[in-house]
Amino acid sequence: MSQFKDRIFRSVRANLNDVLDRIREFESQGGFETLFDEERSRLGDGHTGGTDPVPPRGGKKGIRDYYANLEVPYGSDIDTVKASYLKLMRRYHPDRYTNDPEMEALATELSQEISQAYTAVKSWLKNGGY
């Protein structure tokens, strides 16, 4: 029985080392940033909707940033986006933090970002651009 366990252990270790080698190779070739650049170039040329759904580096926010602000996965439907928006607005509404001025200011800022994100995503889903 111990020989069987040893063979399994060696096999798992070999597979793990193979996976680690592939990860190191992937990272040495640019990693996920390279994949994101390829997706940016692909979506930037052929998509419809007027504006780039993937934010350019150092540029204005893209639609994916707004989805992240709303804490929903990219491509969610309007009902999911609306439910998340309402949940976040209840959580971060400035009136909930009237006793603490710092938290009230932070909640005001967050609620404005959430509202802007909801408006952009809603427009994106309805009209194909924001």
UniProtKB/TrEMBL annotation:
Domain of life of the source: Bacteria
The regions listed as transmembrane in this protein's record are none
State the protein's name: Uncharacterized protein
| Source organism | Bradymonas sediminis
Q: Source taxonomy lineage?
A: Bacteria, Deltaproteobacteria, Bradymonadales, Bradymonadaceae, Bradymonas
